Structures are given as C-alpha cells and as structure tokens.
Amino acid sequence: MRSNELNQPISIVIPAYNEESAIVDTIDEVKRVCQSANLSYEIIVVNDGSTDHTEDQLKLTGVTVITHPHNIGYGRSLKDGIKAAQYDTIVITDADCTYPFDKTPELLEVFNKGFDMVVGARTGKYYQESILKAPLRRILRFIVEFSAERKIPDINSGLRVFSKSKLIPMLPRLCNTFSFTTSMTLGFMMTGKFVKYVDIPYYNRKGKTKVKLFKDSLRTLQYILQAINYYNPLKLFMLFSWCSIILSFWFFVFGIFTHWNTLVSFGIGSALLSLIILSCGLLADSLKQIVDKNAEM
C-alpha cells in the first residue's frame, strides 16, 4: 500500500495531433491542478507530427516536448512519452479538453491505496453513444469483459493513473493506434493487476475528432483478439466455440420447424466444429503453459 499523501512525483503524458485550439488550455489546466494539490510533476507533450500551429503553441508553455517527424499514432505517442517519463507514477490525458484533469488528485488518492491502475470512467451527455457507435462499442465491451471476467464501464478512457514499472513489460505488445488504451486495459486485467474505475464527467472536445469509427473499431477488435490470444488463448477459442454452438442451435431449430434437412445437417456440422475449436483451444492453452514455464526457468 502506498502513502495516502499526494506527495509522490508524477509524470503527465499528453499526446497531441493538430490540437492548436486546445493544447495551451489543457497544459494550463494541468499546471493549475498540480500546483493546487502541491504535486511534484513533469509534463511531457508528444507532438505527433502536427501540421497546424500546435508546435508553435507548445514553445510558449515551457513543458517537455517530444516531436515526431510525421503522424504515427496515438498509442505510439503515449509509448514514447511514457518511456521518457522520469517518475514511476504516470498520468495520461488528452489534449482536447475533454477530460476533467481536476479529478486527477482523486484518482491519485485511489491509486495510493494499492491499485496498479486507476481509470476515469466517462459519464455525461457528451459521452452518450450515437446510433452508429453504440452497437460497435457494446460488441467490443462484451469481448473485453468476457476475456477479463469482470464488468468494465469504460474500456478505452484516456484519463488514467498507473505504474510505469507495471506497464513497461507489456509495452511492446500494446498497439500504436487509438486502441492503445483498450489493449492496456486488457493487458493489466489479464495479468492479474489491480484496476479501479472512478466516474468522471466528459466534456465537449475542442477541435475535430481524429477517430475513424469503422476503421478504428475493426483495428481495436484485431488488437483485442491478439491480446486474448497472447494472454489466454483458451478464452479466444471458447469465444469462437460459443459462436459456433449458437449458430448450430439456430440451424437445428430453424431446420426442424421448416423441415429443411440441409439446415439440420449444418447444425450438426456446426456442433462438431465447436468441439474441434474447443479442443484446439485446450491444446493452445497447454502449449502456452509450457512456454511460460520454460520462460521462468
């Protein structure tokens, strides 16, 4: 258990891409909150190849700036900022004024109770899901919750406090895109780390969003499946096995009621396929245990 006092030095990492309208306000807010809470801190802004006046704005702030020669991704920006941080307690937030940084002392207080990561779970009207976002987000959340075996109110919140030393071993396996925080959530939970969620308000962003809904959702799904396959392959095979069983049940019921024998045959085939998939999962899990034991020797 860490000290309950907010006296540990912290590194605040902020990725920025074309945030000229918000970056100065974000940094001013971070400084104000840290000074009010008497925190020892450093601010690292990673300018991810901005093509507007973000770089010029950053020159006026006096913070540490890492500049990428071209845009390479949200996750890569966070990785570079985290690697450059000199303190073990890391806080990440976005540069668009959507996250309430004044909630950070509260997150730190919870973090000091022994958690490896504390995440701000977004609430409010600006976080309400649109018609397009809702089904995609729910599918991704279901897969992550199924894998982590716990309820997760916000799988990809960008305001979180965590231990650098706990993150570094898994950093190479985390993605370089907007899915970074999702893969980070999975990495912490599937390796038995202590993770806590605290409700926070979510504000209207300044500037345009950089998220491409369908492209980034598909990429997120890809990294989720890769993470499950790495940390717990049996879970991944169980997921596909369950899908096959559901499909088999649908074929059976529909085929029997419609007297369509072909569908009944498909149902039998799907049921057998689910058993094959589950067997492959058991084999993959056994191989992973052997690899893990050899790695420990």
Structural features, described:
This protein is of the alpha/beta class and 297 residues long. It has two domains: 222 residues, Spore Coat Polysaccharide Biosynthesis Protein SpsA, Chain A (Alpha-Beta Complex), CATH 3.90.550.10; 64 residues. Helices cover 51% and strands 14% of the residues. Strands 3-2-1-4-6-5-7 form a seven-stranded mixed β-sheet, sandwiched between helices. α9 packs antiparallel against α10. It starts with 9 loop residues before the first strand and ends with a helix.
Q: Main sheet, how many strands, which sense, barrel?
A: 7 strands, mixed
Strand segment count: 7
What Rg is obtained from the alpha carbons, in whole angstroms? Answer: 22 Å
Under the CATH scheme, which architecture of the largest domain would be assigned?
Answer: Alpha-Beta Complex
Please state the overall shape, judged from the principal axes of the Cα atoms: elongated
- What is the CATH T-level topology of the largest domain? Spore Coat Polysaccharide Biosynthesis Protein SpsA, Chain A
CATH superfamily of the largest domain: Spore Coat Polysaccharide Biosynthesis Protein SpsA, Chain A
How is the largest sheet built, in terms of strand order? 3-2-1-4-6-5-7
List keywords for this structure.
297 residues; alpha/beta; Spore Coat Polysaccharide Biosynthesis Protein SpsA, Chain A; 2 domains; seven-stranded mixed sheet; 10 helices; 51% helix; elongated
